[in-house]
Amino acid sequence: MKKCHYVSILIGFFIVATIFYSGCAANKPVKESSFPEGKLYPKPYDKVWDAVHNLIFTDLGCVDKKVNKKKGYIETEWATQLTTEGTWRWRIKAQVKQKKDGTLVLLERDMEQRDIVDKNDLRSKEKSKDQNPNAGWKHNNEDLSAADNLYQQLENKLK
Fold this sequence. Notes:
With 159 residues, the chain is an alpha+beta fold. Helix content is 36%, strand content 30%. Strands 1, 2, 3, 4, 5, 6 and 7 form a 7-stranded antiparallel β-sheet that branches.
């Protein structure tokens, strides 16, 4: 009987150790945005819209994809950049809504990284006429606080 208890305790120990180890081995935590539901500015809608529009298209030099002032929506085309970590692309989406006590702005910055592609794979893709322009990109949500810098820039524009 005592031998059975030792085996049970030993199995229990390994189960607890495995659970603990898998929790410690998880990816680094995702940085949350300081403003997951947007940020309220105590300014009129037109002034905030103009500041958001100016920030995205003049200061950042983005190219517009969808812009609708009445609905308070802006979406940019993808911008691509090469870094030492690989090829990245990003775009910005903004929603501007009139509220009782100001104007609510929700900014999102989508980031994607290009999968590493073998040269042979590139040749076969070049032959394909029906290519998906989004193929080979994977969404990167390691740093959801990337939009926080945009909120700070917007804050400075509205002063």
